[in-house]
Amino acid sequence: MDTSVVVVLVVEDDPxxxxxxxxxxxxxxFMVAQASTPEDARDMIDAPDAPYRALVTDINLAPGKPTGWxxxxxxxxxxxxxxxxxxxxxxQDQWATYGVPNSVLITKPFxxxxxxxxxxxxxxxxxxxxx
Length: 131
Prior knowledge:
- By secondary structure, this protein is α/β, with parallel strands linked by helices.
- The protein has a single domain (7-126), classed as Response regulator (Rossmann fold).
- The protein has helices spanning 15-27, 38-46, 68-78, 95-98, 112-126; strands at 7-11, 31-35, 52-58, 84-88, 103-107.
- Strand 3 (52-58), helix 3 (68-78) and strand 4 form a beta-alpha-beta unit.
- The longest helix is centred in the C-terminal third of the chain and has 15 residues, at 112-126.
- It is globular and about 35 Å long.
């Protein structure tokens, strides 16, 4: 795979939001991998050759299933610098408790460009600066 291509894993169970976020990221120059269930997302995160350079996840995916908080923590166990963008309509007050450090939370409804901007900012912040 071309190492200059940045692959973003998007986890969202609402098909409309799933498509809008994916399209915005592609328009922003990213390659997108998508999961609509927490189980699929976990499998994708755990894959030995997972190429993801960022994670964009909804928080409340399905009752009784892993949440976006859980998926982000798992992804950070594998890559401690992985940029994480959370999307939520009702869980923003839990971010300080459950969110991973150096993440961004976007509250629904949002403009699709906000996701692209958040991913870009986190990737730029994580990139080493040339000396």
